[in-house]
Amino acid sequence: MNREENVKKSFDAIMALKGADEFKAKIQNLHNFLKNKDAHVSFADVTLPNYLWIAKRGGGVTTLLNAFAEYLYATNAIAFCGLERFLEFKLDYISPDAPFSELTRFDRTIAARTGHNRYYRGVVCVNIDDWQNTADEDHFMKFVNFVASNRDKWLTILYINTEKKDVVESIEVALAMYMNFKTIKLRFPDEHELMELVENRLLKNSIKLDENAKALLRETIKEISKGKHFNGFKTIKQLTEEIRYKILTENSGKKQIITAKMLADFDKDSDYVKRRKAQIGNRKSIGFAGAGGYENEPR
Description:
The chain has helices at 3-15, 21-39, 61-74, 101-112, 138-148, 165-176, 191-203, 211-224, 233-250, 271-277, and strands at 50-54, 86-90, 122-127, 154-160, 181-185, 207-209, 256-258. By secondary structure, it is an alpha/beta fold. It has 2 domains: 3-185, Rossmann fold (3-Layer(aba) Sandwich); 191-277. The chain has a 5-stranded parallel β-sheet, sandwiched between helices. A two-stranded parallel sheet has the order 6-7. The radius of gyration is 22 Å and the shape is globular. It starts with a helix and ends in a 22-residue tail after the last helix.
């Protein structure tokens, strides 16, 4: 496969993503930029923008990053160097009266990705949820300045889970002081799009759903997504796996049409759904990497 074919393949993969309308529009702009830049030598020193992603927890940041990195690799937009094309990091909050140890931890994380190379080149995605109301503090400014000063090595994406306009605006003000960036809101797929992901995975096992079964699962997904601890594509993948398991416990798994009656254990009023909507204390999402995937089939 030649370079043009690789570029088309990676570009088409992004255009097929669910819940990433604004991202796809920005990729189209980037696609035009890279094509025009290649055609005009005098623009060779124009750099790529960084990004601020506004996304919902469980919305598939990791797989979106993977698709983006593949595209940047195919287009030679970044001279990747290191063990991985992208890395994820969660920036923990440090109070103003304490030493900013996060900068050292971040630097060590970058160094660990270099392998046998002298430096890392790639995409760096940083979760800044802990800084939603403190973007004007010196520690955060210091971090933004640090990543901006390494723009020749990394394309930086700052990622935050919020629906508050004032929070986003405060972060945009902080970033504008140090870097060129684009803000992208990642729309979370609705129950119809998530249902399509379930169908695609089942079809790989020659399992088809009748219309009543599809309607039942759409309602189920809609109810589950209302839960406080809904974890996006991970939860949908788990639902699909449990459906496949049930099918294999009750028959041979050969090609068949699944009815709503066969999926009664998963309807919106079932114990299955009630358990997934239950409120369990104040549990927070742990970690950052592996949040799910924007893809036609959840991993």
